[in-house]
Design brief:
Distance between the termini: 90 Å
Shape: elongated
CATH topology of the largest domain: Glycoprotein, Type 4 Pilin
Order of helices and strands: HEEEE
Structural class: alpha+beta
Largest sheet: 4 strands, antiparallel
Number of strands: 4
Strand content: 5-15%
Radius of gyration: 35 Å
Amino acid sequence: MVGHRFKRGHPPRGIPLADFSFSSIRLRKCSAGFTIFELMVAVLIAGILVAVGVSSYNSITDQARVTRAIADIYGLSMTIAQFEARNGSLPQSLADVGEDNFMDPWGNPYQYLRIADSGKPGKGEFRKDHNMVPVNTDYDLYSMGKDGKSASPFTAKISQDDVVRAKDGSFVGLVSDY
């Protein structure tokens, strides 16, 4: 019975399985490609993974830039303190300490405004908290943040991403965290 054609892929009764050959079974031919639905699902999953990855990357990059701006402001504060110790007064601008071209992580220059001895404490463009009280008594030093825009009061929407020095250096961080 070897060589006998079996129907439906099963040996007829009475033939031992040892004599059964899988080569004698005719399999239905399957298509070798993917359906459009399968491709759409794969593209959708890939798109979701890319979106999550890009979002995570942007978040990590933004946090790294904020951390860098905080470190820069601490460093600039030290440079300003050294200038004040040598000269007996605060610099008029960052140019006086050789940092007038120092850029924040977003490519904008750091902002410095001398408050002490300015003759108008509490008035002008000094950075102010939610009670409109200046946050420093000596000088303001800050980055305008990701949007590159800033306003004097911390309550302004465009100020929320600014990285600031406040409480005369006791706080350095995002306005939104103040």
